[in-house]
C-alpha cells in the first residue's frame, strides 16, 4: 500500500511537513532523494500532458520548491528537451543549493529575474516559485513575473502548489499562478480543493513519490474527499410510506419558484411524499406544474401545525422571507423537534435568534450566510473555510454544509468532508433550493445527518457536472439538474 490508498485524504500544511520529516528522519529517505523523485514525477506529468513540447521555461524560487524545478530542468535536458531556468535569487538550504548545482554542472544556465525582463521562449511554463509555505501575497516583483507568465498564453505546470495560493485555506491573497495542471507531491493539500484555489490549480494530480504505507500509519488526515455514491436499490415490496415525508416550508409572496424547486428536488431525490406549506396564491401554479407535490395554503402557525405530525423531515427556508409570516413559520418548525434542513432565510433568521439543534439539523449556508451566523464578515469566512465550517457545526450543534467551490461538510466533532465536483455554471439562482430538497429527501429515506449532507452535496454537484457536460456551463439553470440527479441517485453515471 502506498500513497494511492490515501488519495481521498486531505492534509494541512503542518501535517504534510510532518510527513516529510517522518520520511526523512524515521524512514531514512534523504530530503534530496525526495526532491529527485518529485522532479522525475513532474517530468512524467509534463510529457503526458504536452507530449510534443520541446522547450520549457522553469521559474525557480529560492527554497525546496525551486530545488524541484532545478532538478526537473536537469532531467529535461538529459532527455533532450530545452529547459531555461529563471531564478528569483540564490538558493537557500542544502538540498535546494545541491539541486541548483546539479543543474549548472549539466551545463544549464540560470537567468536572474530582474522584474521587467522578457520571458524565455517556451512551449510550457513550469511554476517552481513557492511551495506550501507561502501564506501571504507575492512580492511586487514576483507578482509581475506571474502576470507575464499569464500574458504569455503558454500552458503552465505548477509543482506542488500554484505560487500565490495558500495551500492550507485555498485563499489567493494577491496575484497567483493559474496552472493548467498542478502535480502535488506526497499528500493532498486541503486548500487546493476549495475556495479560490480551484480557479488556479487546473487539473490536480497527486504523486506519492513511491513512499510506503508506513508513512501514514497513525497519522490522521484533517479532512477527506467525498467519493461517488448512490443509495442501494429499494426492496421490491417498498411503498411510499417507507421512503419518508418531506414538508417544505417557504414561498413568501413572489417566491413560489424557490419552494417548488425545493419540493421537486425532494421528489426526484426519492422522498415517498412531499408536502409544501406556502402562500395560498402559489397553489394553482404548484398544482398545475407539479401535481405530485401536495401543496397547502398556510397563512400562519395555526395552519402549519396540523401538517407537522405527518412529516418525517422539514425543509425550511427557500423563499421564506424574514417578515412576520416567515418568522412565525420558522419558529413553529424549529420548535416541532423534527429533523430539518435549514437554508436561505431560515439561516438569516437563525443568525438573528441563535439556537442549538442538538443533532437534529443540517444547515446549508453560503459564505455570506455563514458570516452572519458567526457574526463576522464574508472575507473572514473565505480566508479559512475549514475553520469556519467547523466553528458553525460546533456553535449550532448541527451538521453544516458550507457551499461554494469545494463545498465542505462538517459535524460538531470536527469531521470534515470536501466535495470535489461542481462547476461555475451552478452559480445561479435556485441551486441552493435544490440542495435543501435533496438533503431533506435523503434524511427522510433513513440517512443520518452526516450521510444525507455528504451524499446530497455530492449528488447535487455531480448532477451539475453532468448537466453542464450536456449543454455547457453558461446558461445552466437549477431545474437542469433534476434529470441527471435521478440517474445518479440510482447509480447511473449518464
Q: What's a concise summary of this model?
A:
This protein has 2 domains: 3-223, Rossmann fold; 240-489, UDP-N-acetylmuramoyl-L-alanine:D-glutamate ligase, CATH 3.40.1190.20. The chain has 17 helices and 19 strands.
What does this structure look like?
- The chain is α/β, with parallel strands linked by helices and 494 residues long.
- The chain folds into 2 domains: 3-223, YjeF N-terminal domain (Rossmann fold, 3-Layer(aba) Sandwich); 240-489, Ribokinase (UDP-N-acetylmuramoyl-L-alanine:D-glutamate ligase), CATH 3.40.1190.20.
- The chain is 39% helix and 16% strand.
- The protein has a 12-stranded mixed sheet with strand order 8-1-10-19-18-17-16-15-14-11-12-13, with helices on both faces. Strands 4-3-2-5-6-7-9 form a 7-stranded parallel sheet, covered by helices on one side.
- A hairpin with a 5-residue loop joins strand 18 and strand 19.
- Helix 7 crosses helix 15.
- It starts with 8 loop residues before the first strand and ends in a 5-residue tail after the last helix.
Amino acid at each position: 500500500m502506498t500513497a494511492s490508498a490515501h488519495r481521498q485524504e486531505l492534509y494541512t500544511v503542518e501535517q504534510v511537513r510532518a510527513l516529510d520529516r517522518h520520511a526523512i528522519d524515521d524512514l531514512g529517505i534523504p530530503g534530496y532523494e525526495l526532491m529527485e523523485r518529485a522532479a522525475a514525477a513532474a517530468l512524467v506529468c509534463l510529457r503526458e500532458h504536452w507530449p510534443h513540447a520541446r522547450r520549457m521555461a522553469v521559474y525557480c524560487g529560492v527554497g525546496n520548491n525551486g530545488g524541484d524545478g532545478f532538478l526537473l530542468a536537469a532531467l529535461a535536458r538529459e532527455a533532450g528537451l530545452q529547459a531555461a531556468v529563471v531564478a528569483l535569487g540564490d538558493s537557500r538550504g542544502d538540498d535546494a543549493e545541491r539541486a541548483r548545482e546539479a543543474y549548472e554542472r549539466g551545463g544549464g544556465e540560470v537567468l536572474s529575474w530582474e522584474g521587467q525582463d522578457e520571458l524565455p521562449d517556451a512551449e510550457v511554463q513550469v511554476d517552481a516559485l513557492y511551495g506550501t509555505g507561502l501564506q501571504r501575497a507575492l512580492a511586487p516583483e514576483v507578482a509581475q513575473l506571474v502576470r507575464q507568465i499569464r500574458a504569455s498564453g503558454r500552458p503552465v505546470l505548477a509543482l506542488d502548489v500554484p505560487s500565490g495560493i495558500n495551500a492550507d485555506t485555498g485563499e489567493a491573497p494577491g496575484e497567483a499562478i493559474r496552472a493548467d495542471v498542478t502535480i502535488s507531491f506526497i499528500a493532498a493539500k486541503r486548500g487546493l480543493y476549495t475556495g479560490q484555489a480551484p480557479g488556479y490549480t487546473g487539473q490536480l494530480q497527486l504523486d506519492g513519490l513511491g513512499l510506503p504505507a508506513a508513512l501514514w500509519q497513525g497519522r490522521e488526515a484533517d479532512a477527506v474527499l467525498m467519493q461517488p455514491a448512490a443509495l442501494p436499490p429499494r426492496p421490491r415490496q417498498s411503498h411510499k410510506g417507507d421512503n419518508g415525508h418531506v414538508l417544505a416550508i417557504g414561498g413568501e409572496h413572489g417566491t413560489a419558484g424557490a419552494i417548488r424547486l425545493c419540493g421537486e428536488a425532494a421528489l426526484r431525490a426519492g422522498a415517498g411524499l412531499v408536502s409544501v406549506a406556502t402562500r395560498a396564491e402559489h397553489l394553482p401554479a404548484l398544482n398545475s406544474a407539479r401535481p405530485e407535490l401536495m401543496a397547502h395554503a398556510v397563512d400562519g402557525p395555526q395552519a402549519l401545525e396540523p401538517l407537522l405530525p405527518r412529516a418525517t423531515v422539514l425543509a425550511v427556508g427557500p423563499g421564506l422571507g424574514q417578515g412576520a409570516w416567515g418568522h412565525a413559520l420558522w419558529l413553529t418548525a424549529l420548535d416541532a423537534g423534527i429533523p430539518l434542513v435549514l437554508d436561505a432565510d431560515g439561516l438569516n433568521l437563525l443568525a438573528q435568534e441563535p439556537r442549538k439543534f442538538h443533532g437534529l439539523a443540517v444547515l446549508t449556508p453560503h459564505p455570506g450566510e455563514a458570516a452572519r451566523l458567526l457574526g463576522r464578515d464574508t472575507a473572514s469566512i473565505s480566508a479559512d473555510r475549514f475553520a469556519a465550517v467547523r466553528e458553525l457545526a460546533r456553535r449550532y450543534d448541527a451538521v453544516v454544509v458550507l457551499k461554494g467551490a469545494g463545498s465542505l461538510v462538517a459535524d460538531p466533532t470536527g469531521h470534515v468532508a470536501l466535495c470535489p465536483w461542481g462547476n461555475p455554471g451552478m452559480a445561479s439562482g435556485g441551486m441552493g433550493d435544490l440542495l435543501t430538497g435533496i438533503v431533506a429527501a435523503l434524511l427522510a429515506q433513513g440517512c443520518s445527518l452526516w450521510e444525507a449532507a455528504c451524499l446530497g452535496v455530492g449528488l447535487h454537484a455531480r448532477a451539475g457536472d453532468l448537466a453542464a457536460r450536456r449543454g455547457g456551463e453558461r446558461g445552466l439553470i437549477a431545474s437542469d439538474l433534476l434529470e441527471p440527479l435521478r440517474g445518479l441517485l440510482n447509480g447511473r453515471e449518464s
